[in-house]
Amino acid sequence: MLQTRFTKLVGVEHPIVQGGMQWVGRAELVAAVANAGALGFITALTQTTPEDLAKEISRCRDLTDKPFGVNLTILPAIKPPPYAEYRAAIIEAGIKVVETAGNKPQEHVDEFKRHGVKVVHKCTSVRHALSAERMGVDAISIDGFECAGHPGEDDTPGLILIPAAANKVKIPMIASGGFADARGLVAALALGADGINMGTRFMATKESPIHQLIKEKIVANDERETELIFRTMRNTSRVARNAISTKVVAMEKEGAKFEDIRELVAGARGKMVYATGNSDEGIWSAGQVQGLIQDIPSCAELVSRIVREAEAIIRNRLEGMIVQPQREAAE
């Protein structure tokens, strides 16, 4: 068993996390991750109202007695969701760990900490990680350029970002972006992280609540099948390459503003991708790690395989490379 500062902090067996994913982080997936000994997060804003979130937390509790958390992503919006009400629903439900992401979460961190909730903040740069640490979060999820969703604007890949953050961040840290297997876990631990966060990999599992055709699409795709949209608006998002994302990128190159692409990138259309299985229906998130995903296992199979193979890499491959220098024969 691999025990790290992060597993001790949140009380799980394995240093593997399924972070928040819009439309995907639902009870059936989160419970399966939890039952596998990893840490899953329900995505709060996938639920239409705070009351719906409370029901989803209850549904998850019916499926597992293991620890799980809730993701609360704070993003700029014309009509912001009632964040304080979602936060209250999380606290009232007795959730003990929350993943925050997006804009400075100080008021949320303060309120969660006041109620004994541990906070993991997801960020895409060392400076933001240090800022979150000063805010009092309990752990950092550092997200490299390879990731699905929002990689920030620095374009720093995980191989640099993880050790750069580990050099300065004192609290436990999990590595996000580009992780799907045991090799990634071992690499993250070697780079200074205390575990890994996987999104796209958990989308392609039996318990993932998305259409089978999308799971199969993830398996079929290679590492080149993503696009970076909203680059010109400095709100970069990595999504699966399809007819819509390719069109959006082309329109941006021609100077399109958000109003020009609003209908193409609407969240309702992206939600339909997961419901209908039509991968060209709208924009949907996927990382470059698609190139490492070859099957659709259960969460239990996936987590146990990663941990088992990681231990084998450490014990056999890495230890086997250490050779004691032979002493020169005595003259």
Automatic annotation (TrEMBL):
Which UniProt keywords are listed? Flavoprotein, FMN, Monooxygenase, Oxidoreductase
Which SUPFAM superfamilies does the protein's record reference? Inosine monophosphate dehydrogenase (IMPDH) (SSF51412)
Do you know which InterPro entries this protein is assigned to? Aldolase_TIM, NMO
The Gene Ontology terms for molecular function here are: nitronate monooxygenase activity
What is any Pfam family matched here?
A: NMO
Q: What is this protein called?
A: Nitronate monooxygenase
